[in-house]
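Human:
I keep going back and forth on a fold encoding question. Comparing notes only helps if you start from a blank page. Show me how you would write down a chain together with its backbone fold. Write it directly below this note and I will take it from there.

Assistant:
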Amino acid sequence: MRKQIYLTAILIALVFETGFGQTSRPFPQNVDYSFGFKPSTITSEVAQDTYNKWKERYLIECNGGYRVICEGHDETRVEAIGFGAILTAYFGDKKEFDGLYKFYKSKRTENANYMMAWNVSCDGINDPGSATDGDIDVAFALVVAYNQWGGDYLKEANKVIQVIKNSVVTTCDTLLALAPGYSKESDMGPMWGGCELTDIQYYTPAFFRIFAEVSGDNDWNKLADDTYTILNAAANPKTGLVPDWQSVSGIPGGNSNRVPYFRYDACRVPWRMAIDYLWNGNPHAGEWCKKVTDWAYSIGPENIKDGYNLDGTENSQGFHNSAFVGGFAVSAMCNSQEVANAFGTEMTSSTLGDDHWFVLSTRAVYLLPITGNFWEPTVTSK
């Protein structure tokens, strides 16, 4: 009995010494960013309520882990796992985060060069190829998890970062770019797309700068910088709007019949670019975010719809939802206090139609930076 008590005391001491399992930055943090304007018209309670609703509706158990359901119970997409990993890491839900990462690892395929298959079910794989954005978000979320709980999360992040680098980072003349996915079964080659077809919402420069620290590979910093050349190649010079798909040289739709205007891929670009300004003060991020939110503010946050041609004319399904309003709301934080407050107010509006897994997921993610809870993770060891 005495020996058992002694061993228990040692284990407790080790937990307190290492901090492993203890959440270092519990929600809410309510940080002020080094750059930009945080809306004063919205609170962290809105973010917490949205996260709770997201968990209740879309986060379910699967074989001892967790997954996010999408278009029905038989479909989970890698982008949904990426959203879920970011959310559970920032909200400090270790059990749910670990469960999502367990599911992610179980769905990596040889066909996708051990990136996650982009469309799966609990017990099967619907499409074995990959989609780059989800893996990038998971790798980033692992760095956040390391900041929260210590342990081996940073090592795991580096493994995922290396797989992404080896699978979908490509060179287009002098630029580094991302292929949209990897599939040995694709007619376009295993690294499908790339120079002739890319998706600018797969690029998050602030995450890439962290990947450079984690991996010691400066190519990630170059990819972060080259992102703005690719972004501006396709951006409308007046509105700043970008297409869902493009070539690296800026041709909307790229070399295929992919969507050549601002829809449900491109709506995430304002969020992804804005983080590089909020954390790092990157002037290219700030300039583009101000341009696109000057246009959006002229429309009015309450009037934003779910699709636009690049010249700003409406090309939508008529929905007013957080997938679009929220992306602009994050980007508005690079503009002015007035513009940030206006979009912050609209994110509390009852007129937003957010009853869909994608829309509610993006809303939950966007509300983290909007409310001061998307703090920048640090890398203290490799």
